[in-house]
Design a protein that fits this description.
A hairpin with a 5-residue loop joins strand 1 and strand 2. The two termini are 21 Å apart. The protein is built from 13 helices and three strands. The radius of gyration is 21 Å and the shape is elongated. It has one domain. It has 258 residues and is mainly α.
Length: 258
């Protein structure tokens, strides 16, 4: 989505509407550009976030439907109630599944499988790809139910599918919470051996999304590959300058293609 730049008379009002703390990094990334360059970088960030939001929306729905169908084929249409499936989950994921069931079920009724699936957050789907309780997810859920659904283009191991989906989920949450994206995406809780906080570039997030989709549905991946507007935004020199500014922070380790 193209975000129109405000006229010179309106630009001060737009800047004044934003928190100073929020604009601090934008100002520092364009120290010689002044207020206009700060605003232009902020609008570029909004355009990039808008494009990524559309991408994440499609990735989330595809992942949800693919996993739902694969789990239903193995455990039955109400796979989330199957005892062997539930026993393989860790407590956090099991609680999220039960919360979704309770969220759509009146005390006197049984919710439809579709209603429960629609209420499961992306983070819960990601956790279903995690090792699970005592590492049982691999043998109980992944190998018999999900593995074949993630090998449409090339074999994707459970750990790789989990890592890709987790990074996409973290990026999706950042976009949904209106956080800046032009400076990259933090990987919560992940640090290097030297204690630097790990962060990935928007390009890496785009590549992760495309790789995950390609493993599940090459045809959808081909369609997403035609979204040239996101690639164009990432090629903007101002994105590279913003990432260079963030990479200069000694507490940050920026990873991924620029």
């Amino acid at each position: 989505m193209h975000v129109p730049s405000p006229s010179p008379s309106l630009a001060p009002a737009v800047l004044a509407s934003l928190a100073n703390d929020r604009l601090r990094h934008f100002r520092r990334a364009v120290p010689a550009g002044g207020h206009r360059a700060t605003l232009e970088l902020y609008l570029l960030d909004a355009e990039l976030a808008s494009g990524l939001h559309a991408l994440f929306r499609n990735v989330e729905v595809l992942l949800r439907e693919t996993m739902h169908r694969a789990l239903a084929a193995h455990f039955g249409p109400r796979w989330f109630s199957d005892q062997s499936f539930r026993a393989a989950l860790d407590q956090r994921t099991l609680t999220a599944v039960d919360d979704a069931i309770r969220g759509v079920r009146p005390s006197w009724d049984t919710p439809s499988a579709g209603s429960v699936v629609a209420h499961l957050m992306l983070g819960t789907w990601v956790q279903i790809l995690a090792p699970g309780a005592q590492g049982r997810q691999e043998a109980v859920i992944w190998q018999p139910a999900l593995a074949s659904a993630f090998q449409r283009s090339r074999p994707l191991a459970r750990a790789d599918a989990f890592e890709l989906a987790q990074r996409v989920n973290w990026a999706r949450n950042r976009v949904n919470h209106c956080e800046p994206v032009v400076f990259g995406f933090p990987l919560p809780g992940q640090v290097t051996a030297k204690g630097r906080r790990r962060r990935v570039t928007p390009q890496q997030v785009l590549d992760d999304s495309r790789e995950l989709v390609a493993a599940v549905d090459p045809a959808v991946a081909a369609w997403i590959g035609t979204w040239a507007e996101i690639d164009g935004l990432l090629a903007d020199p101002r994105v590279g300058a913003a990432l260079a500014y963030k990479a200069a922070d000694r507490g940050i380790h920026l990873e991924g293609r620029r």
